[in-house]
Specification:
alpha/beta, TIM Barrel, eight-stranded parallel β-barrel, 15 helices
Length: 344
């Protein structure tokens, strides 16, 4: 897919704060990456920044590298192209931290419709959802009701729902909703996400292995305090590999655990490939997951090697916080963002 080009008009007003942030990160070299990440995570949550930047057309032109579009048809079109290239996908209707029951209901209904579209177009796709988009921060019971309705709808179509994990104060509530649907209601088409930057994740994975859960393992995309999360990347990476081996253990696979490894880090991917080959774990017992628009070369090479690859494809008008968190996750994304302002 060709990369988009961007007009030169009105670049500087939006580029200026990005350059300032980037230069500040360089000046604070010793802790620059962490400092820069924290600033970007703050901006992803700041209403004033969202209102300003979302109204600049140039911002959407750049964000469109990472977001399929603003409506379901755009998501379907991207999904069909990915399927044709041998990749599966998980669709995500963008939005989080709703402020009213009506807003949560609107999100629920839209997700129901994307499930219908997946079935109609026979896409090799499932759906990821955020609990806060469906009412978690208003009332956990409201979120549980909305998520339950979505999982039930997916069940009718033989589809699967992944409950995304958000910032650490929501972890217990998110796991409680998952367990209620899985064990109390008896829905087996639902899974969760575990973040390797949290200290608690090893114990969470141990319990989920015993439950035979479908887990996506990621590093984590929120600015968390050192009291609950590893502050150093090397420790986050180390825990990621530890958790990945746990989810690929003989006991885990015997219990029906199906791990999904969400990473763009070639070293992590290579370590998982070596581990699975050494332990004779078939490639259909796990999958790699990557974000739409990031490391397409790596996505394609994994498919050619015979691995299962699923692309996380977001869509919708609430793209700003998602986009800025993608910049926070990997400095390379930020440099890509800046460089595109200078394209003809």
């Amino acid at each position: 897919m060709d990369e988009p080009t961007y007009p030169t008009k009105s670049r500087f007003p939006l580029l200026l704060p990005i350059i300032i942030v980037a230069m500040s990160g360089i000046l604070f070299y010793r802790n620059g990456e962490k400092w820069l990440r924290n600033i970007l995570v703050y901006l992803s949550q700041a209403a004033w920044a969202r209102q300003i930047i979302s109204n600049w057309s140039i911002a959407w032109l750049v964000a469109s590298r990472f977001v399929a579009g603003e409506d379901r048809q755009a998501a379907v079109d991207v999904g069909q192209a990915l399927n044709e290239n041998g990749m599966m996908l998980t669709l995500d209707y963008l939005g989080e931290s709703c402020t009213s029951e009506a807003e949560a209901s609107t999100a629920r209904d839209e997700i129901m419709r994307i499930l219908e579209d997946i079935n109609r177009h026979q896409l090799k796709a499932n759906v990821s959802i955020k609990p806060s988009q469906l009412g978690l921060k208003i009332d956990p019971a409201l979120a549980q009701e909305n998520i339950g309705a979505i999982v039930q709808k997916a069940k009718q179509y033989g589809n699967f729902i992944r409950i995304d994990m958000e910032d650490h104060p929501t972890t217990d509530a998110t796991l409680a909703i998952y367990r209620h649907l899985r064990h109390n209601i008896g829905l087996d088409n639902v899974g969760v996400v575990i973040q390797s930057y949290l200290y608690r994740s090893e114990k969470d994975v141990e319990k989920l292995i015993e439950e035979g859960a479908s887990m996506r393992l990621c590093k984590g995309a929120y600015a968390e305090p050192a009291e609950v999360a590893f502050p150093k990347k090397i420790d986050v990476d180390g825990n990621y590999l530890n958790l990945s081996r746990m989810t690929l253990s003989r006991n885990a696979l015997a219990n029906g655990v199906y791990p999904a490894f969400a990473t763009h880090d070639p070293r992590m991917i290579d370590e998982i490939k070596i581990y699975t080959k050494t332990n004779n774990i078939p490639s259909d017992k796990f999958e790699f997951q990557m974000l739409y628009g990031i490391r397409r070369d790596l996505q394609e090479s994994l498919v050619k090697e015979g691995y299962r690859v699923r692309i996380y494809v977001p869509y919708g008008t609430a793209w700003y916080p998602y986009f800025v968190r993608r910049l926070a996750e990997r400095p390379a994304n930020l440099w890509f963002f800046i460089s595109n302002f200078f394209r003809a």
